[in-house]
């Protein structure tokens, strides 16, 4: 039984880092961790191939080789996923599909032969047993959530690591919070479920033994969902693991209450984390109340960001406009907050309603959901009818993007960030990838780019004021180029 695992292509978005990856000759930011994990759950004797369309072309020869195609996708990959399904059907190849796209909208994919939904640890074994006995069903659903102690080490041998900018690992699933627009708790629940530290270390060993010495993304939607477990078990294990390791740097996602725990901040930095993505959404308390982002309320968000920066973690921030309580003044408040915060990587998107969320149900009852959920909140579109009107929302959104990613404002944020940020005690060797980044950025940004004055000013300033941060300054300049390209091509 030849199994072909297929990962659809991502469109160009802020998250794809398409234009930044070209500086270091990488094809994709992250590998398909979900499919690699599913591959490890399949019978060992079945031959397997994995085609990630973000790094390789799906060939007719691959389809001809396969007896069964497994497709995993998120909502943002919908267009590519539909194209893959059509190609498989044209070749008469049976399709098994899973992942958040299909879990949220199972009725939208009639061509798929078998939908193995929710968490694969629960539904895939039942499908495999039915498939073995010749009676597979159309849809497999789970009534609860799995024990992550049963999750195997991903089948890393199925990919070529050198094509990716970062590797990925998952420690936990679930989030204790209740944001109205978020589908994380719909997919994974409110209780944080964790792997044992020995599992995480085994996965890290597998990645390290394969020769990886660069970034590793802990993909947890909220890494600090159980702070006590982190401080008592996982972080001490990571600190011990790093003692004889070189080059690996971690980053993850967390909630803003990370700023409330100095011990946790210090342990994360000691363990090798250098950055964290935080959903800030809005500096407006009314908007935070509306979307039930209670963990962000009644606090000084600017000071919280500075606290995290000063601990040694660079904050990447998520922001949303288009809440019912937003007004025309909201857009300038977002701009002011982003500039003052020193958050260089500011992912600003228009509010969307993912199927299954309370936001989707509420707006559907109000007849305000008018198109399919794209999963891309930075493409200048939304699937809802905003109260302020679509034209006003779009104009305001464009004004934010134009201002925060203008070279002048962007490079000013980079300097502000470097001033606040405590350099982590992580030794990262000057490898070929970093040399390429410096060489290509010097030519493309420092000579050809319209931001060349700001680029060289930043490098000179960093060399004098923060010499240890020169590699980071180059990296952030490259990110800025990517964000501006996305804005110019798809938003402005």
Describe this structure in words.
It is a single chain. This protein is an alpha/beta fold and 492 residues long. It is 43% helix and 13% strand. The protein is built from 19 helices and 14 strands. Strand 13, helix 13 and strand 14 (346-350) form a beta-alpha-beta unit. Helix 17 crosses helix 19 and helix 18 packs antiparallel against helix 19 (470-491). The radius of gyration is 22 Å and the shape is globular.
Name the helicity range.
40-55%
- The chain-level structural class is alpha/beta
Overall number of strands: 14
Give the averaged pLDDT, no decimals.
Answer: 95
**Major sheet characteristics:** 6 strands, parallel
List the total number of helices: 19
Taking pLDDT < 50 over at least 5 consecutive residues as the criterion, the unreliable ranges are: none
Report the sheet-strand fraction: 5-15%
Principal-axes shape call: globular
Alpha carbon gyration radius: 22 Å
Distance between the termini: 49 Å
The largest beta-sheet arranges its strands as: 2-1-3-4-5-6
SSE order and pairing:
Layout: E1 3-7, H1 18-21, H2 33-41, E2 48-52, H3 60-65, E3 68-72, H4 78-90, E4 94-98, H5 100-104, E5 114-116, H6 120-132, E6 139-140, E7 166-169, E8 172-173, H7 184-188, E9 193-194, H8 197-209, E10 215-218, H9 227-242, E11 249-254, H10 262-271, E12 273-281, H11 285-290, H12 301-311, E13 314-321, H13 330-341, E14 346-350, H14 358-365, H15 390-404, H16 407-420, H17 432-448, H18 452-465, H19 470-491
Parallel strand pairs: 1-2, 1-3, 3-4, 4-5, 5-6, 7-10, 10-11, 11-12, 12-13, 13-14
Antiparallel strand pairs: 8-9
Helix pairs in contact: 8-9, 9-10, 13-15, 13-16, 16-18, 16-19, 17-18, 17-19, 18-19
């Amino acid at each position: 039984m030849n199994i072909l695992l297929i990962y659809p292509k991502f469109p160009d978005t802020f998250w794809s880092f398409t234009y930044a990856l070209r500086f270091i000759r990488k094809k994709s930011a992250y590998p398909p961790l979900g499919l690699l994990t599913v591959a490890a759950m399949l019978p060992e004797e079945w031959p397997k191939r994995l085609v990630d369309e973000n790094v390789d072309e799906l060939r007719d020869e691959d389809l001809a080789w396969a007896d069964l195609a497994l497709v995993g996708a998120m909502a943002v990959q919908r267009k590519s996923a539909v194209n893959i399904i059509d190609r498989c059907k044209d070749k008469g190849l049976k399709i098994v599909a899973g992942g958040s796209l299909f879990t949220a909208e199972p009725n939208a994919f009639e061509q798929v032969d078998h939908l193995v939904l929710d968490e694969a640890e629960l539904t895939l074994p039942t499908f495999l047993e039915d498939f073995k006995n010749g009676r597979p069903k159309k849809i497999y659903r789970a009534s609860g959530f799995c024990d992550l102690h049963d999750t195997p080490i991903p089948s890393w041998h199925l990919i070529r690591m050198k094509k990716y900018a970062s590797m990925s690992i998952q420690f936990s699933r679930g989030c204790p919070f209740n944001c109205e627009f978020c589908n994380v708790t719909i997919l994974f629940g409110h209780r944080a479920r964790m792997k044992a530290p020995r599992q995480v270390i085994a996965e890290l060993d597998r990645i390290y033994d394969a020769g990886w010495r660069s970034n590793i993304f802990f993909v947890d939607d909220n890494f600090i969902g159980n702070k006590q477990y982190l401080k008592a078990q996982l972080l001490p294990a990571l600190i011990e693991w790093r003692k004889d390791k070189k080059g690996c740097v971690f980053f993850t996602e967390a909630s803003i209450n990370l700023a409330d725990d100095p011990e946790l901040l210090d342990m994360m930095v000691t363990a090798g984390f250098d950055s964290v993505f935080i959903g800030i959404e809005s500096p407006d308390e009314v908007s935070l109340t509306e979307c039930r982002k209670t963990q962000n309320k009644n606090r000084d968000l600017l000071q919280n960001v500075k606290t995290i920066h000063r601990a040694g973690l660079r904050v990447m921030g998520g922001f949303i406009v288009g809440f019912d309580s937003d007004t025309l003044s909201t857009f300038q408040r977002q701009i002011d907050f982003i500039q003052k915060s020193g958050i260089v990587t500011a992912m600003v998107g228009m509010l969307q309603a993912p199927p299954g969320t309370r936001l989707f149900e509420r707006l559907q009852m109000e007849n305000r959901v008018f198109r399919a959920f794209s999963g891309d909140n930075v493409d200048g579109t939304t699937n809802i009818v905003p109260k302020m009107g679509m034209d006003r929302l779009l104009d305001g959104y464009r004004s934010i993007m134009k201002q925060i990613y203008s070279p002048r404002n962007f490079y000013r944020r980079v300097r502000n960030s470097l001033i606040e940020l405590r350099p982590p005690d992580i030794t990262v060797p000057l490898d070929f990838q970093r040399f390429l980044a410096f060489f290509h950025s010097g030519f493309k940004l420092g000579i050809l780019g319209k931001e060349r004055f700001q680029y060289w000013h930043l490098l000179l300033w960093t060399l004098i004021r923060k010499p240890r941060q020169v590699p980071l300054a180059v990296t952030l300049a490259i990110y800025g180029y990517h964000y501006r390209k996305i804005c110019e091509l798809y938003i402005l």
